[in-house]
Amino acid sequence: SYIIEIENKEYGGFKMIRTLNKEKVIKILTEEEYEYMNAFNIIPNLSDKVLDYAEKNYEIIEMTSQYLEEKRKQNSNLSIPLFVLAGVQARMKRLFAISELPLAITSQEIIEKLGINIEYHLEESLLKESNIRAFLERYKQEKDKPLEFQNEFIKSFNQINKELLKKAKLTSDIHVLDCTICDVNFNNENYEGSTITYKGGEKLRGYKLGVLRGFGPNSGFIEEIVMNTAKPHDLKMSKDMILKSEYLKPGDDLIEDRGFLDIKMIRKLFKKGVNVTIPAKKNMEIHTAAVTEAVSKNEWKKHPNTKRKGQDITLVSNLEMFWLDEKDKEKKPENIHLEYSMHAAVIRFEKKLNQSILTDAEILEEDEKYAYAVILTTHPTRSAEEIIKLYELRPEIEEDFRQLKDFWGLTEYRSTQYHIISFVIMVSLLGYNLYQLYKESEEGKDHIGKSFIVEQRHGLYVVKNVRTAIIIDNYFAIFWQDELLDLYVELSKENRERLKQLLIL
User: Fold this and answer.
1) pLDDT for res 459
2) For the CA atoms of the chain, what is the radius of gyration?
3) Cβ-count burial of 359 within 10 angstroms (0-12 exposed, 13-18 middle, 19+ buried)?
């Protein structure tokens, strides 16, 4: 049995006792009198399967309790996991308002372990909106101190996620680093700590999220995050996270876009044994040198991706002297000693066949027939084909960002306060990663390559394994369909009719 008892002025001075006890519920229904009864069906859904799996295999309740600091002086019976996992499952069910969190948790593993009140009655629920807001308020920063973007919720995600990946024994030797803007209503200046930035010529207000992503056997997963106002450059915001990251191991590959072009950081990563693959900008000396050498060699091969029509590639080696940091530029060439080499896959685009993907500036370049791109790498032995195939993994993180925003509510905020926004960020990313881990399991393999939201909706049309919650006075229990049928035949006619009224009519 699990007992929840609450009595605290901070949360409205209410008192409630609910005991999870199936034997007692059965006994009262079949043998005793009762004052109050309620019942409802819990329709199975993918979010239940994901959370049930996470608790059975990774003990997600213990993790959330361990890695989010308890800031309340009283009422700790309303446990941290209760709030966090309600937030996670609410995101999975696309319930974005704080008031909707009490309706979110239907995972049997979570309900049974926490012994929570699952009755759908907002005034009586342990997770009524006032309790949730009071919990979140404890993580609000003091007004006279600078806003800390790496607050408890952001730190907590990284700590919980690290433990999750460790327990799942999920590691990656290929990683992608990228940033995305978590935009808010541009005309609302009240979003705490938000700033204005530009993306693709569009003026935005919001925050910036930096993400290190790994690749599993069947799906990608988030490894580590950093958050800030929207203003800092991607490189400046993410540099410290990357150089200190425990996920980047000797022999690993890190894929980056042009926003992270920094030779000092690349050299530091190389010293750690991490190879970097990154495109050069057209105004860089190393880009010019690579294209000049490629054209001179004239040893082109077809692009390894057969969908890339009118594109050829070639390898150019030993370009490191064309991209030096400021200190090396001041030295004579014979005095420069580099511990790494820089190579490139040069891509040649036939303009006539690639107008849809080339910019106006590229189309109008001096060469009338071709445009060029240069993908750099510090890996010493990769072929042009291998460099290209590796770099073509980078767009997967952009698809992650799209799904997180469109499906997981990453930018769906019902508050302008940063501590609540960062809570939303934490539970959205945690829910996303739990689904990714679930897909790597034998149990979840049927969902590989499929969107969570589509799969969740599809499951509603295949109604099997329905569970029924029955509340009798101060007790509740959850029954599988076969258990309910066995119980039903033992009930009095009055109780059978009562159940019909609650469950069917």
Assistant:
1) 66
2) 28
3) exposed
